Amino acid sequence: MGTTQLETVPEPKYWHLRTVLSEALDSEFSVGEILPNERDLAARFGVARATLRQALDQLELEGRLQRRRGVGTTVAPPRMGVSVGTAQHAWPGGPDDAWQAVDCTLEVPPATVAETLVTGRDEPVHTVRRSRVSQGRPVAAELLYIPASSVPDLSAIDAPSGAARARAVLRELQHLELERHENAVELGSARADDAKELDRLPGAPVLVVTTSFIARGRVAALSVATYRADTCRLTFGDFGGVEIHHGPERRAS
Fold first, then answer.
1. Is the pLDDT of residue 127 over 90?
2. Which keywords are on file for this protein (predicted)?
C-alpha cells in the first residue's frame, strides 16, 4: 500500500480516505490478509488516527473489512447469500428452517417484548436461543420469545432445558394456525453477548431483524435476530420474506 498524501477535497477527509483505501484493498490485498496497524496507516496517508478510524469504520460497515479479536483488521470475504425470513405461512423451526437450536429457558422478557406479546411485565416466557452459520462462519444469533399461551401442551414434554427443550417448544408452536408475519429491520450495535457469539467486537455494526408471528389475531411469537452487518445486504420480496444476498453491490438496501 503506497504512501498517498491527501489533498484538500470538497468531501469529508475520511470519505476520501475510504475511497483510497477501498481501491488499495482491490489491488493490493487478498481476502483474509491483515492490514498494517493504525499508526502506520495514519502515517502513510498523512491523516490523524481519528480520521483513519472513521474510514475503517465505514469500510467495515460496507463489508470490506473485518475486525477480529486477537487478529486485527483483515480484508473481508464477499457477502454471503442466506435466506433470513421464513415463508409467509411457516413457523420457525419448520423443515426448511436453517437456524440451529441452542437453548431454551423460561425467563421474564424485556419490557418492550412483554408489551408486544401482551404478557404481564413479570410473566416469564419461553426464550429460545438459536444460531445461524453460513460457509462455516457465524452470521446471526436469534432470541425467539414465545408466551406460554402459544404452547399450552408443553408441560407434557420431557425436555427440561437445552436444545431439546428448544426444539420441543418450536414443535408445539406448529399446532397454531399462522395468519402472517411482519418484519422490521434496523441498524444497531452488537451487545457483548451478541458480539461474542458472532465473533465480532462489542459495538460492531449489526442488522437487527424483528419478526412478529401473528396467530388468532395476536402476536404468538416474537423473533429478534441479530445479523453481522458486514456479511449482509437485505432485500424484500413480494411475499414478505427477507433475504440476504451477496454480489458486487456492497451497501445495505
1. yes
2. DNA-binding, Transcription, Transcription regulation
Q: What SS3 state is found at 40?
A: helix
**pTM for the whole structure:** 0.68
How far lies 222's CA from each of 35, 54, 118, 191, in Å?
40, 35, 11, 19
Which residues, in sequence order, are CB contacts of 79 under 8 Å at separation 6+?
Answer: 63, 230, 231, 232, 233, 244, 245, 246, 247, 250
Q: Which residues of 205-240 are buried (b: 16+ CB within 10 A; e: fewer)?
A: bbbbbbbbbebeeebbbbbbbbbbbbbbbbeeeeee
Q: What type of residue is 10?
A: P
CA gap 236, 233 in Å, rounded: 10
Q: What is the pLDDT of residues 178-188, one digit of tens each?
A: 998 888 888 88
Percent of the chain surpassing pLDDT 70:
80
The half-sphere exposure of 184 on its side-chain side, counting CA atoms within 13 A, is 8
Query: Do residues 55 and 93 lie in contact, with contact meaning Cβ atoms separated by under 8 Å?
Result: no
What are phi and psi for residue 172, nearest 5 degrees?
-65, -35
Tell me the pLDDT tens digit for each residue of 130-173: 998 876 778 889 999 999 999 988 765 666 678 989 999 999 99
In the chain, the N- to C-terminal Cα span, in Å, equals 31
Q: What is the DSSP letter of 86?
A: P
Q: Which residues pair with 207 in a beta bridge?
A: 187, 227
203 versus 247: the higher-pLDDT residue is 203
CA distances from 89 to 99, 158, 180, 181 (A): 17, 28, 6, 8
149 SS3 class: helix
Is residue 208's pLDDT more than 60? yes
Q: Is residue 60's pLDDT more than 90?
A: no
